[in-house]
Specification:
This protein folds into two domains: 187 residues, Rossmann fold; 154 residues, Rossmann fold (3-Layer(aba) Sandwich). It has 14 helices and 13 strands. The strands form two sheets. Strands 3-2-1-4-5-6-7 form a seven-stranded parallel beta sheet, sandwiched between helices. 40% of the residues lie in helices and 17% in strands. The model has no long low-confidence stretch (mean pLDDT 94). The protein is an alpha/beta fold.
């Protein structure tokens, strides 16, 4: 059996990876080694390791790395802690392959540790671009450290090849986040309301906004404009989810707490909704607003619009249900008007596959025996 280590650091990547974790655990070909780190182990961000334990997955290692600071220095120190702790986990577990998703700082640390230990990496969601965040550089760096690549669209597969990766090791499997939408039993309206301890209103909006890490301006200014626009709406329930642990994320989370405290009759917040509640919520929302990648990939599957604000996701492939706007009051107001007028009776084509990424990844890994980490740079003839 091949020992496959999967590293998860946030509620978001765990939700995407959950079907793959289950498939690895159930496979006779693989032994699952689940490494849990970063936001999962922080009470401030919901201590979401409990969701993993509730799902019954065995956790091979827990690696503490988050500090109480979200400054640039604090983020760098957290990366150093993650690198050290995950390297020790690899040394003990001795995996044959590491599977990593995305572009977060702790995942970069996990990739560096695997590279140093000569452990091949399978990278999910490479080749994408997010021009407003330093995730952009992290993602492409992980691509160069990885051996297998599982992209969410053909355009992204071509970009990974452009980065010098051999096409024989780059596979377009679609977005893995769609797998759960097809398989998970979602909550009906009554059960969802019970789960959030609140009634839905005539209109309902889900808000998830993260720091735009390459901007000099504090996220406080942009998020305040969003709150002002949302505050003008009548008969509307606002459901906020916390920003992640990126630089300045705590500023946004404090603003959410203060807003909800002043508007408890129409708003509530969660450090983490969890995957089932989050996907269930999308059934009953009029739209989602913010700058999360989920708004571009998972949300459109529920045939509701996403208002994508600012440059954090700039460069990603976007379907017809995405309304882009700057973090300016007039543009946000216009986008909200457009979102409320959205025709949900019409079906829209989406660019991220059919929800079969897990099966494809498992089949590919089963048939890969020869791994030569002495990769040649694949040159494209222009």
């Amino acid at each position: 059996m091949k020992k496959i280590a999967i590293v998860t650091g946030t509620r978001a990547d765990y939700g995407l990876l959950r079907p793959l974790i289950k498939a690895v655990e159930d496979s006779f070909d693989f032994e699952l080694q689940l490494i849990v780190t970063a936001m999962h182990l922080s009470p401030e961000f919901g201590y979401t390791v409990q969701e993993i334990e509730k799902d019954g997955f065995p956790i091979a290692k827990k690696v503490e790395c988050l500090l109480s600071s979200d400054t640039a220095v604090g983020v760098s120190k957290s990366m150093a802690l993650a690198l050290s702790g995950i390297a020790e986990a690899y040394a003990e577990l001795k995996p044959n392959l590491v599977l990593l998703l995305g572009d977060r700082t702790e995942i970069f640390s996990a990739a560096i540790a695997a590279m140093s230990a000569n452990i091949p990496i399978g990278h999910i969601h490479g080749g994408e671009t997010t021009e407003g965040a330093y995730d952009e550089g992290i993602r492409h760096a992980i691509t160069k450290l990885s051996y297998f690549h599982f992209t969410s669209a053909e355009e992204y597969r071509q970009r990974v090849i452009q980065l010098g990766e051999n096409p024989n090791r780059v596979f377009n499997v679609g977005a893995i986040g769609l797998d759960s939408i097809k398989k998970l039993p979602l909550l009906n309206k009554q059960d969802f309301e019970l789960s959030i301890k609140a009634k839905l209103a005539k209109k309902n909006i889900l808000v998830t906004y993260h720091p735009v890490t390459l901007e000099k301006e504090s996220p406080r200014v942009s998020f305040e404009k969003i709150l002002q626009c949302l505050n003008q709406l009548e008969d509307t329930r606002l459901i906020f989810t916390f920003a992640n642990s990126d630089k300045c994320g705590r500023i946004i989370n404090q603003m959410i707490k203060e807003y909800v405290a002043s508007h408890s009759d129409r708003s509530l917040y969660f450090s983490s909704l969890g995957q089932i509640r989050y996907l269930s919520a999308l059934q009953y929302m009029d739209f989602v607003i913010g700058n999360s990648s989920s708004g571009l990939i998972e949300v459109p599957q529920f045939n509701i619009p996403t208002i994508n604000i600012g440059d954090r996701q700039k460069g990603r492939i976007m379907g017809p249900t995405i309304f882009n706007c700057k973090a300016e009051t007039k543009e946000i107001e216009a986008a909200i008007t457009k979102a409320f007028a959205f025709d949900r009776t019409k079906r829209y084509d989406q660019p991220y596959g059919e929800g079969t990424a897990t099966e494809q990844i498992i089949d590919i890994l089963k048939n890969q025996n020869e791994i030569d980490l002495k990769k040649k740079f694949y040159d494209i003839t222009f």
